[in-house]
Amino acid sequence: MGLFEDSYDTDTLRSFTPEERSALRTLHTQLEECEKEIGCLLAGQLGLDSDDPRVAEEVESAIEEWDESQHEAETTQTALTPLQQLLSRHAEVAQRIMDVCDVAIERAAKA
Protein backbone atom coordinates (compact mmCIF):
# COMPACT_ATOMS: atom_id res chain seq x y z
CA MET A 1 0.00 0.00 0.00
CA GLY A 2 1.24 3.49 -0.79
CA LEU A 3 0.66 6.90 0.63
CA PHE A 4 -2.77 7.73 1.97
CA GLU A 5 -3.46 10.18 -0.85
CA ASP A 6 -2.55 7.56 -3.48
CA SER A 7 -5.30 5.28 -2.16
CA TYR A 8 -8.14 7.59 -3.18
CA ASP A 9 -9.09 9.66 -6.21
CA THR A 10 -9.30 13.46 -5.90
CA ASP A 11 -13.11 13.55 -5.60
CA THR A 12 -13.06 10.97 -2.84
CA LEU A 13 -10.34 12.84 -0.95
CA ARG A 14 -12.47 16.00 -1.08
CA SER A 15 -15.43 14.14 0.43
CA PHE A 16 -13.55 13.47 3.69
CA THR A 17 -13.62 15.95 6.54
CA PRO A 18 -10.25 17.02 7.96
CA GLU A 19 -10.87 14.70 10.92
CA GLU A 20 -11.63 11.77 8.60
CA ARG A 21 -8.49 12.46 6.54
CA SER A 22 -6.43 12.50 9.72
CA ALA A 23 -8.00 9.26 10.95
CA LEU A 24 -7.51 7.62 7.55
CA ARG A 25 -3.83 8.67 7.41
CA THR A 26 -3.30 7.07 10.81
CA LEU A 27 -5.21 3.92 9.87
CA HIS A 28 -3.35 3.55 6.57
CA THR A 29 -0.06 3.87 8.44
CA GLN A 30 -1.20 1.15 10.85
CA LEU A 31 -2.23 -1.04 7.91
CA GLU A 32 1.18 -0.62 6.28
CA GLU A 33 2.89 -1.47 9.59
CA CYS A 34 0.79 -4.65 9.86
CA GLU A 35 1.74 -5.61 6.32
CA LYS A 36 5.44 -5.05 7.08
CA GLU A 37 5.21 -7.18 10.23
CA ILE A 38 3.41 -9.94 8.33
CA GLY A 39 6.11 -9.72 5.65
CA CYS A 40 8.93 -10.01 8.19
CA LEU A 41 7.28 -13.00 9.83
CA LEU A 42 6.63 -14.76 6.51
CA ALA A 43 10.11 -13.95 5.22
CA GLY A 44 11.58 -15.62 8.28
CA GLN A 45 9.35 -18.65 7.87
CA LEU A 46 10.24 -18.94 4.18
CA GLY A 47 13.93 -18.24 4.63
CA LEU A 48 13.74 -15.20 2.35
CA ASP A 49 14.93 -11.63 2.66
CA SER A 50 12.03 -9.35 3.67
CA ASP A 51 12.33 -7.29 0.48
CA ASP A 52 12.21 -10.34 -1.80
CA PRO A 53 9.24 -9.83 -4.20
CA ARG A 54 7.94 -13.29 -3.29
CA VAL A 55 7.36 -12.09 0.25
CA ALA A 56 4.99 -9.34 -0.95
CA GLU A 57 3.06 -11.99 -2.90
CA GLU A 58 2.89 -14.20 0.19
CA VAL A 59 1.66 -11.28 2.31
CA GLU A 60 -1.11 -10.51 -0.17
CA SER A 61 -2.06 -14.17 -0.36
CA ALA A 62 -2.10 -14.59 3.43
CA ILE A 63 -4.31 -11.51 3.86
CA GLU A 64 -6.74 -12.70 1.18
CA GLU A 65 -6.90 -16.20 2.67
CA TRP A 66 -7.49 -14.78 6.15
CA ASP A 67 -10.28 -12.51 4.92
CA GLU A 68 -11.94 -15.41 3.10
CA SER A 69 -11.66 -17.72 6.10
CA GLN A 70 -13.21 -15.07 8.36
CA HIS A 71 -16.14 -14.56 6.00
CA GLU A 72 -16.74 -18.30 5.81
CA ALA A 73 -16.46 -18.89 9.56
CA GLU A 74 -19.65 -18.70 11.61
CA THR A 75 -17.73 -17.31 14.55
CA THR A 76 -14.52 -15.34 14.67
CA GLN A 77 -11.52 -17.61 14.97
CA THR A 78 -9.31 -17.15 17.97
CA ALA A 79 -5.96 -15.97 16.64
CA LEU A 80 -3.48 -18.42 18.07
CA THR A 81 -0.34 -18.05 15.99
CA PRO A 82 1.66 -14.84 15.60
CA LEU A 83 0.69 -14.77 11.91
CA GLN A 84 -3.01 -15.12 12.74
CA GLN A 85 -2.72 -12.34 15.30
CA LEU A 86 -1.16 -10.02 12.73
CA LEU A 87 -3.72 -10.95 10.09
CA SER A 88 -6.53 -10.33 12.55
CA ARG A 89 -5.13 -6.91 13.44
CA HIS A 90 -4.73 -6.09 9.73
CA ALA A 91 -8.39 -7.03 9.11
CA GLU A 92 -9.54 -4.86 12.02
CA VAL A 93 -7.65 -1.82 10.72
CA ALA A 94 -8.96 -2.40 7.18
CA GLN A 95 -12.50 -2.56 8.58
CA ARG A 96 -12.00 0.72 10.44
CA ILE A 97 -10.86 2.33 7.16
CA MET A 98 -14.00 1.05 5.45
CA ASP A 99 -16.14 2.40 8.29
CA VAL A 100 -14.71 5.91 7.88
CA CYS A 101 -15.21 5.72 4.11
CA ASP A 102 -18.80 4.52 4.55
CA VAL A 103 -19.63 7.54 6.74
CA ALA A 104 -18.25 9.89 4.07
CA ILE A 105 -20.20 8.11 1.32
CA GLU A 106 -23.43 8.31 3.33
CA ARG A 107 -22.87 12.01 4.01
CA ALA A 108 -22.17 12.68 0.32
CA ALA A 109 -25.33 10.79 -0.69
CA LYS A 110 -27.44 12.98 1.61
CA ALA A 111 -25.94 16.21 0.28
What does this structure look like?
- The protein is built from four helices and no strands.
- By secondary structure, it is mainly alpha-helical.
- It has one domain (4-110).
- Helix 2 (18-46) crosses helix 3 and helix 3 crosses helix 4.
- The longest helix has 29 residues, at 18-46.
- The model has no long low-confidence stretch (mean pLDDT 90).
Integer average pLDDT? 90
Distance between the termini: 31 Å
Total strand segments: 0
| Main sheet characteristics | none
Query: How big is the Rg?
Result: 16 Å
Number of helices: 4
Class of secondary structure makeup: mainly alpha
Please report which band the strand proportion falls in: under 5%, 5-15%, 15-25%, 25-35%, 35-45% or over 45%.
under 5%
Q: What count of structural domains?
A: 1
- The helix fraction, in percent, is over 70%
- What order do the helices and strands follow? HHHH
Given the C-alpha coordinates, what overall shape results? globular
Unreliable stretches (pLDDT < 50, length at least 5) are none
Descriptors:
mainly alpha; 111 residues; 4 helices
Explain the layout of strands and helices.
Elements: H1 10-15, H2 18-46, H3 53-72, H4 82-110
Brief rundown of the structure:
The chain has 111 residues and is mainly alpha-helical.
